[in-house]
């Protein structure tokens, strides 16, 4: 059975007819060619490599049908660079990973970054307490990394949070405003 869906991914509106049982991760990878979103377990929700942001919340895309994303605004790792307003402008999360060597093989990294997007969007608001290393580890409990031992990932998150806290509120908010990516029909 097939269903028509319209999903906005990284600012591009995709109108597709897809099998009703297609998972969001397969829609992103196979229908749209956005292979930055990975599959690290057997579609069981265990590894977090498939994490994307759906309507502002980090979501394991192997745990969601693509038809459930109909009308939603999805951001994948490929979309992070589009928040800066100029080509190649790294998102503070990417900058943090780059500066603190937050990856080795990189397989878990896209999912990590999209979980962190959700964490920081909430945490860097005015008046929110600074994230401790322990709180960051707790927040990443659903994302498995086989390489880094997590220390560099935690430091990368702290670095990104520090960059964001140094900004004026409007500038900081812009890095999480998914409406800035636009709505261009693909
Ligand atoms: S592929 Fe492992 S949690 Fe989705
Ligand atoms: S960097 Fe290799 S799995 Fe995380």
Question: Can you tag this structure with a few keywords?
Answer:
6-stranded mixed sheet, DNA polymerase, domain 1, 186 residues, binds FE2/S2 (inorganic) cluster, 6 helices, alpha/beta
Task: Summarize this structure briefly.
The protein has 186 residues and is an alpha/beta fold. The protein is built from six helices and six strands.
β content, as a range?
15-25%
For this structure, the CATH topology of the largest domain is DNA polymerase, domain 1
Mean pLDDT: 95
- Element order: H for helix, E for strand: EEHEEEHHHHHE
Rg on CA atoms, Å: 16 Å
- Main CATH class of the largest domain: Mainly Alpha
Bound molecules: FE2/S2 (inorganic) cluster
**CATH architecture designation of the largest domain:** Orthogonal Bundle
Largest sheet: 6 strands, mixed
Q: Categorize the overall geometry.
A: globular
Specify the CATH homologous superfamily of the largest domain: [2Fe-2S]-binding domain
| Estimated structural class | alpha/beta
Low-confidence segments, ≥5 residues, pLDDT <50?
none
The number of domains is: 2
Helicity range: 25-40%
| Number of discrete helical segments | 6
What does it look like?
The chain has a six-stranded mixed beta sheet with strand order 4-3-5-1-2-6, covered by helices on one side. The mean pLDDT is 95. A hairpin with a 2-residue loop joins β3 and β4. The relative contact order is 0.17. It is built from six helices and six strands. The protein is 32% helix and 16% strand. It is α/β, with parallel strands linked by helices. The chain folds into two domains: 86 residues, Ubiquitin-like (UB roll) (Roll), CATH 3.10.20; 94 residues, DNA polymerase, domain 1. The chain is globular and about 50 Å long. The structure holds FE2/S2 (inorganic) cluster (2 copies). One FE2/S2 (inorganic) cluster binds next to loops. This is Probable 2Fe-2S ferredoxin.
């Amino acid at each position: 059975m097939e269903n028509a869906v319209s999903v906005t991914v990284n600012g591009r509106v995709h109108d597709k007819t897809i099998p009703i049982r297609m998972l969001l991760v397969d829609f992103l990878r196979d229908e749209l060619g956005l292979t930055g979103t990975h599959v690290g377990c057997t579609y069981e929700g265990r590894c977090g490599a498939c994490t994307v942001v759906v309507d502002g919340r980090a979501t394991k895309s192997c745990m969601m049908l693509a038809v459930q994303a109909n009308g939603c605004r999805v951001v994948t790792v490929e979309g992070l660079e589009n928040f800066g307003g100029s080509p190649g402008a790294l998102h503070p999360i990417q900058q943090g990973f780059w500066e603190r060597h937050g990856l080795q093989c990189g397989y878990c990294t896209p999912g990590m970054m999209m979980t962190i997007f959700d964490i920081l969007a909430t945490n860097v608001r005015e008046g929110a307490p600074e994230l401790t290393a322990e709180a960051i580890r707790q927040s990443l409990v659903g994302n498995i990394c086989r390489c880094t031992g997590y220390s560099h990932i935690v430091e990368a998150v702290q670095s990104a949070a520090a960059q964001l806290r140094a900004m004026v509120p409007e500038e900081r908010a812009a890095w999480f405003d998914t409406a800035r990516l636009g709505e261009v029909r693909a």
